[in-house]
């Protein structure tokens, strides 16, 4: 490949062999060296510290997007973008410049406007993928394409590797591992980032309107708690002690409620040393909120409002459009069903908190379900997932869970053997969970002791006995409703995408 001939098109970057990539890089490194050697020329160096931008591509599009063919404006602008299309034809060269949001504009570089030296430098030094600054008049081409008739240009950043083919889909693996290429080449990837930002901003606005206070809790903890999950462990050199990455902020947020912050929330990063699949990531974003003098009913109302407000922030409606074009309605009041009632109906037998464990074991065996640490609640929950979960498409609150799998939840006010807990399911996956919080320190200690027994029996997800948290409860925590929701999963419900698409930079091997 000649160093003086920029490629007119590129294959998908993942389609190049190592030798081809090395050849491309070598050619571009040569151009980088020539740019740096001629920094005083019209090229101006390979990586200038700044360029005199006066307008953005979206702003020019917004102001002049309705120009008729072959029109001139008399308006001179200086703008920059990445070259995503390049065509050099004799005395007139064309480049399509793309802004970060995907908006494009054409740059026209003619011999008459820039002169022999500048045009020759353009043909020698400019490649697909480069960031380019241009100055010139805003015009419309003969074909009606909004353009800049360039009078001056400068490479703003030299790309040393070729872009993927913008007319072909990147593989999912490449999209996840090289998200920067995904953002350059795919509109949906850029939309995902914008949707997430709007959704999170909406969550904060809803909380602010309802007079909740946002706080921060520790990521490094001496004891993991607040959820049933396997933690990541690390070592602090400064304290010479073993620490855990946060699996949930719950126990610290509840300390804040004890301290008098009656409405509190946190949007945070959690870490769980468990499996990864289409709905799970070891590192994920979580929202948790607690409302003094609320319960699991009021917190369900809050959760519905949070998600519906986020949907409206993204779509302007409670009906969202998924990436595949499906319309999904998040409006109205969402169904609330009982876990035991829905399981009984689906399984065809009556299952209650008093159902003998042996009966649950027998049913699970018939259905091919195995439980690592067999207790009543785990069998009920696994059987419920087997029989019921997949049928829930519209948002549904599943109410009233077994008491022995929910150590931080208040016992039900009228039904023995269950707790006031719900899980919110959307499209067949769990999106959020909510409690009437357990605030009695004596009962909480008993629950922790039961969990310690499970941990001693080999359950890696069982909670530890947290004396400092119990001490806080002993100072008195008011009746409280609490909820937790995965931000990444909320975006799954709003966009129809898998979790690796809703996380900008997911953890991969």
TrEMBL record:
Residues 11-21 have a biased composition (Acidic residues). Keywords: Aminoacyl-tRNA synthetase, ATP-binding, Cytoplasm, Ligase, Magnesium, Metal-binding, Nucleotide-binding, Protein biosynthesis. Residues 1-33 are annotated as: Disordered. GO terms for molecular function: ATP binding; lysine-tRNA ligase activity; magnesium ion binding; tRNA binding. Mg(2+) 1 binds at residues 423, 430. Residues 1-10 have a biased composition (Polar residues). Pfam families: tRNA-synt_2, tRNA_anti-codon. It catalyses: tRNA(Lys) + L-lysine + ATP = L-lysyl-tRNA(Lys) + AMP + diphosphate. Its cofactor is Mg(2+). Binds 3 Mg(2+) ions per subunit. Residues 22-33 have a biased composition (Basic and acidic residues). Mg(2+) 2 binds at residue 430. Homodimer. Belongs to the class-II aminoacyl-tRNA synthetase family. This is Lysine--tRNA ligase. It comes from Cryobacterium luteum. The gene is lysS.
């Amino acid at each position: 490949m000649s160093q003086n001939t920029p490629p007119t098109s590129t294959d998908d970057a993942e389609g190049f062999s190592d030798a081809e990539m090395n050849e491309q890089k070598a050619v571009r490194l040569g151009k980088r060296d020539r740019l740096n050697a001629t920094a005083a020329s019209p090229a101006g160096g390979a990586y200038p510290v700044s360029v005199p931008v006066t307008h953005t591509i979206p702003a020019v599009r917004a102001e002049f997007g309705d120009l008729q063919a072959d029109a001139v404006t008399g308006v001179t602008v200086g703008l920059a973008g990445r070259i995503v299309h390049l065509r050099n034809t004799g005395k007139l060269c064309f480049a399509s410049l793309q802004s970060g949001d995907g908006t494009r504009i054409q740059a026209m570089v003619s011999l008459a406007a820039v002169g022999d030296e500048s045009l020759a430098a353009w043909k020698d030094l400019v490649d697909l993928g480069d960031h380019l600054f241009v100055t010139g008049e805003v015009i419309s081409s003969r074909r009606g394409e909004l353009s800049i008739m360039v009078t001056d240009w400068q490479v703003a950043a030299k790309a040393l590797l070729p872009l993927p083919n913008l007319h072909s889909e990147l593989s999912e693996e490449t999209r996840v591992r090289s998200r920067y290429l995904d953002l350059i080449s795919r509109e949906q990837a850029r939309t995902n980032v914008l949707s997430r930002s709007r959704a999170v901003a909406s969550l904060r606005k809803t909380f602010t309107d309802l007079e909740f206070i946002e706080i921060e809790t520790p990521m490094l903890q001496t004891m993991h708690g607040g959820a049933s999950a396997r933690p990541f462990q690390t070592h602090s050199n400064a304290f010479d002690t073993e620490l855990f990455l946060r699996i949930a902020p719950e126990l610290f947020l509840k300390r804040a409620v004890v301290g008098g912050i009656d409405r509190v929330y946190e949007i945070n990063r959690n870490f769980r040393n468990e499996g990864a699949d289409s709905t799970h990531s070891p590192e994920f974003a979580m929202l948790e909120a607690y409302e003094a003098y609320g319960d699991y009913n009021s917190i369900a109302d809050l959760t519905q409002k949070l998600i519906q407000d986020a949907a409206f922030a993204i779509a302007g409606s409670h009906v969202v459009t998924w990436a595949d074009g499906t319309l999904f309605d998040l409006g109205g009041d969402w169904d609330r069903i009982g876990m035991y009632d829905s399981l009984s109906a689906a399984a065809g037998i009556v299952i209650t908190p008093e159902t003998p464990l042996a009966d649950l074991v027998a049913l699970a065996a018939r259905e091919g379900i195995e439980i690592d640490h067999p207790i009543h609640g785990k069998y009920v929950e696994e059987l419920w997932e087997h029989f019921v979960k997949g049928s829930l498409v519209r948002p549904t609150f599943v109410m009233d869970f077994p008491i022995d799998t929910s150590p931080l939840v208040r016992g039900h006010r009228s039904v023995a053997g269950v707790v006031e807990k719900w899980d919110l399911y959307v499209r067949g996956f769990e999106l959020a969970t909510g409690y009437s919080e357990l605030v009695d320190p004596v009962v909480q200690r008993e629950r922790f002791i039961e969990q310690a027994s499970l941990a001693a029996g080999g359950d890696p997800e069982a909670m530890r006995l947290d004396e400092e948290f119990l001490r806080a409860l002993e100072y008195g925590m008011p009746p409280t409703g609490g909820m937790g929701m995965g931000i990444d999963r909320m975006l799954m419900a709003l966009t129809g995408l898998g979790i690796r698409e809703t996380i900008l930079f997911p953890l991969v091997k």
